[in-house]
Amino acid sequence: MDSRQTLLNEVRSQHKRWMALHIFTELVGVQLLLMNTIAPLIRGERLTAEQLETVLRQVQSIKARKAQELLAKRANKENES
Question: Which residues, 6 or more positions from 46, have their beta carbon under 8 angstroms from its beta carbon?
């Protein structure tokens, strides 16, 4: 394999990893959104538009950090095994 092909393969591999991390981060965001909205709804409460907007802003601000924390926790568990 020539060096050009090696570089192209590396770029593609990095893009796939980045896309996987992005998708995982968005899934964590959906999970956070559900966890923060379903409980009040199950209790029969209603969320106002302002409350929902607050939850959405909170999720947007913490989802990447939470995703990184989950990945780090899983990596630690794998290293302990």
Answer: 40
